[in-house]
Amino acid sequence: MHRVDDPLPMSANRNYQYVRRQTSMGSSTNEQSSSRENALMNLTTTNFSNSYDWKSQIKRPLPDTRYKTEDVTATKGNEFEDYFLKRELLMGIFEKGFEKPSPIQEESIPIALTGSDILARAKNGTGKTAAFCIPVIEKTDPDKNYIQALILVPTRELAFQTSQVCKELSKYLNVEVMVTTGGTSLKDDIMRLYQPVHILVGTPGRVLDLANKGVCKLTGCSMLVMDEADKLLSPESLPSIIQVMSYLPESRQVLLFSATFPVTVKSFKDKYLQKPYIINLMDELTLKGITQYYAFVEERQKVHCLNTLFSKLQINQSIIFCNSVNRVELLAKKITELGYSCFYIHAKMVQSHRNKVFHDFRNGACRNLVCSDVFTRGIDIQAVNVVINFDFPKNSETYLHRVGRSGRFGHLGLAVNLITYEDRVNFYNIERELGTEIKPIPADIDRAIYCQ
Ligand SMILES: Nc1ncnc2c1ncn2[C@@H]1O[C@H](COP(=O)(O)OP(=O)(O)OP(=O)(O)O)[C@@H](O)[C@H]1O
Ligand SMILES: [Mg+2]
């Protein structure tokens, strides 16, 4: 991994502040509990005699004044206070800088609170995480000392990120959130499970391991969330999911979320969900804020082409996708030789190294990240305004999720695809399946379309 010869300038734009503000992942339990103790201490020592008082205590981040598209602004006009949530949860929501619910939050929060099963489809970056975390936290009773909700996600980094969101939203409540994934010490997880845990966030393999050992007791777990549900229900992880589900009570509530639901999910839905409420906010598939271009190149011209992109584009932070672990490492080396800073991440790296790269990139320590599909789903880094498919993906789901790493929460972003002769069929199919137009890259790209 190559380090910071090109740290982001403080003046880059306000996105930079965004990256810096995001809480570090994987911080120690001690740090988290002491920050919560402080938060709870402040809460109890403050006089919240009327609604004005508690709202005036909230430490909201600077408002996000960047342009946002209809993907997040076309709401019904609900307020978070309309959902009769606990005041402490509302405080967590407002302190995260959420002013109003996004469209998917408006649709799913009230339904999830009623206990209904949900299958929800909404575009990338439109706030699905909070759409399930808010009702899960609201329905969790901190006085009951057992796991009440299980949130499954397909990758370790996404598990850390999701647990962090849960912890931030429940900052003023006594809710204990634990994250468990492969690549970390099983013994530590077993020890942790002797302490109270109310919400467990994890990857399916590790959760199943702990459940099989009898240390992770899920008999009282009445809520099961599967984020990136179509990925979790793909043939590789479906058997683990079914086994994990066998540990939960029959009456559990199941919430499935993703931006993509291929038909293969239907048989699972029919078998395991009870009268699910279907939410589909994808009248079109791609994000309104992302402009997509392609450059037709020969394989041997790709690095040169990338070099030209680096020199011409105004990259705040970029994610560059390759189709194999080997190519990730080779490309990262090439980029460094060209004199640009870059990190890389893929699933064959040791977890401690993966954690460091994820944490440092998120904090703006480096401008470019080369990665495999381990970073394709769910990863939320607000400062990323450019995604480059150095290798073109093979299917439309992967394409959509990769491109959705920029343009978070309705912001603007740019996707550039390097296309070779061998990619032409996939390119045609993906354009057709997504009903979108990927245009040839112009000589000059107006900064206004991806830098606001
Ligand atoms: N109501 C809100 N107001 C402002 N920002 C929000 C709101 N809800 C979510 N966000 C922010 O939007 C960003 C994207 O949210 P999130 O990661 O939940 O999207 P997603 O729909 O899960 O995307 P993906 O499909 O890529 O996983 C996050 O940075 C989150 O903090
Ligand atoms: Mg998500």
UniProtKB/TrEMBL annotation:
It catalyses: ATP + H2O = ADP + phosphate + H(+). Residues 109-279 form the Helicase ATP-binding domain. GO terms for cellular component: P-body. It comes from Ceratopteris richardii. PANTHER family: DEAD-BOX ATP-DEPENDENT RNA HELICASE 50. A motif (Q motif) lies at residues 78-106. Belongs to the DEAD box helicase family. DDX6/DHH1 subfamily. It is found in: Cytoplasm, P-body. CDD domains: DEADc_DDX6, SF2_C_DEAD. This is RNA helicase. ATP-dependent RNA helicase involved in mRNA turnover, and more specifically in mRNA decapping.
